[in-house]
Amino acid sequence: MRALLVVAVLGIAFCLPEHAGAKNANHCALKVYTTISVTMPDDATVLVPVTIGDHAVFMRLNLASLEGFISKSAVDTLGLQYHAGGQSSRVQYGGHPFAGETTLAGFSIGNLKFGQSTFSVPEPTAYGEQSYAGLPIIGLLGIDLFAHADVEIDLSHGRMTLYSQDHCPGRVVYWAADYSVIPMDQDDVGTLYFPVELDGQLINATLSTAHPFSVLRTDASKALYGFDEHSPTVKTRTGASGGDPTHFQAMSLTAKGLTVMNADIELRHADCGFRRSTRNGAAGYEKCLGLFPLDLGLNVLKKLHLYLATKERKLYFTAATADPKPAAQEVP
């Protein structure tokens, strides 16, 4: 999405307890743009309710995707303007080039209204009609949407909150006494990524909120751990409807104060110029912009409570079951 303007409506503030004075508290307060309920059908994807004009619809959330899109069928059904080609034609979706783009004058998430916004439109055969609970699923929201907002995601309670970026650095985790923080980087096309430890190896990862399982690319698995989809330790599954089998390896994710043991990690073939060490000290790729060795999927993310400070370029998180922060004590 390009030409994005975020307008704060209902700018609600709540103060963090550590601030001793009212002036500092107001300066450091988190300012809420909107809080919405999100849905995870079968723990397979995150659906965000959005409004386009007078139409209530769902869009999938994928923070690992640089750019969002709206399907061609939704463009036609909702009577949106459509322009063939456009800047988005350089991006691929599911191996298909985007056919064009659509510009929205009225787009909102909860109480947060956006200015004129442009979405890519895939080829009609790349994204067909889908629905949930009687509402159409018209496309996908990528990380570009949140260039001017912080994002809190609490999947265990089905909640997402968008905040102003205007707050004190590091003063964002209001729900727990202890938390972890990881610096985020941005590649040359704008995708956010960060280092995590997987089975003792530091590796670059993204937040894939559109996939049920975490995904490890096989060039990385072979170089770092000595296995790929053909190794005897790897489990193979075939869906009830047939199709290509999927391959999984049980692995453990660790960070400060957090361990996710024996998570099923799906293996997918890749050959992207894998390197054992990159500029942030974690294993990553020399080519394949927008792609990283590890995507953290919903089987891991639903165990976490996340806050993406997009301006700070930091990812704050706790376990979903983290102990709550003690109540604030009165300052004399």
Task: Please give a structural write-up.
- With 332 residues, the protein is mainly β.
- The chain has two domains: 6-146, Beta Barrel (Cathepsin D, subunit A, domain 1), CATH 2.40.70.10; 186-304, Cathepsin D, subunit A, domain 1 (Beta Barrel), CATH 2.40.70.10.
- The protein contains four helices and 29 strands.
- It has helices at 22-28, 72-77, 218-225, 298-301, and strands at 6-7, 12-14, 30-37, 47-52, 55-61, 69-70, 83-84, 92-93, 96-104, 107-109, 112-114, 117-122, 131-132, 135-141, 150-154, 159-163, 180-183, 185-186, 192-198, 201-207, 214-217, 235-237, 246-255, 258-268, 274-275, 284-285, 294-296, 304-309, 314-319.
- The strands form five sheets. Strands 1, 4, 5, 6, 10, 11, 13 and 14 form an eight-stranded mixed sheet that branches. Strands 2-3-16-15-28-29-17 form a seven-stranded antiparallel sheet, with no helix packed on it. A six-stranded mixed β-barrel has the order 19-20-27-21-24-23.
- The longest helix is centred in the last third of the chain and has 8 residues, at 218-225.
- It is globular.
- Residues 1-23 and 328-332 have low confidence and may be disordered.
